[in-house]
Amino acid sequence: MGIQEAFLSTGEAVGNPKFYARDEKRLAKAQRRHAKKKKGSRNREKARRKVARVHARIQDRRRDYQHKLSTRIVHENQVICVESLAVKNMVKNHCLAKAISDVGWGEFVRQLEYKSQWYGRTLVKIDRWYPSSKTCYDCKHVVEELPLDVREWVCPKCGVWHDRDLNAANNILAEGLSVSACGGGVRPARAKARVGNPQRSRKARS
Ligand SMILES: [Zn+2]
């Protein structure tokens, strides 16, 4: 499918380790076995417990992986820019539904948030309406449409070839850095409002 949990502006796709797929197979197998056992039987109860164990192990691994990743990102970067995804909208899209629910993006951003505070880093959340994917990083041209399954595209204005995820990550970073340079803040909307006010008052004074 080619959809990653997280994509770093360094070009590194992270958060979609192979063990996810292996775990899923294991879970499906346990569930199939459980479904085949006779209702109310001891074997069915045993199979049910097996399914629960596989579930728990998957949860543990994912949580562990997310924590390692968020710690690493916070350690390696002074300023971290993330996009607050419109998870509900994406879940409506069939193809992406599984990838997004695997992601646990909200939980991941939460981890980045409090770890950034611990280590004195700046976390900038880019509003979800910012067209990070549809904006050409090179010339800032915004294309009208970029269906979710398009992973590579060429800017119609400047002709630069883009990897969808890398282009979006670069845009998020640039946007985040400009927001944090304008006074920093976890919420770009508020930061913008803060930047806007002094200008207006200066104009009013002159
Ligand atoms: Zn362009």
How would you describe what is shown here?
With 206 residues, this protein is mainly alpha-helical. Helices cover 58% and strands 10% of the residues. The strands form 3 sheets. It has a two-stranded antiparallel ribbon. It has a two-stranded parallel ribbon with strand order 3-4. It has a two-stranded antiparallel sheet with strand order 5-6. Helix 1 packs antiparallel against helix 2 (42-76) and helix 2 crosses helix 5. The longest helix has 35 residues, at 42-76. Residues 93-100 and 184-206 have low confidence and may be disordered. It binds zinc ion (ZN). Residues 136, 138-139, 141, 155, 157-158, 160 line the site of zinc ion (ZN).
Could you provide a short overview of the structure?
The protein is mainly alpha-helical and 206 residues long. The chain has 7 helices and 6 strands.
- The fraction of residues in strands falls at 5-15%
In spatial order, strands of the major sheet run 1-2
The arrangement of helices and strands along the chain is EEHHEHHHEEEHH
Q: Helix amount, in percent?
A: 55-70%
Mean pLDDT: 77
Q: Which segments are poorly predicted (pLDDT under 50) over 5 or more consecutive residues? A: 93-100, 184-206
Tell the overall outline. Answer: elongated
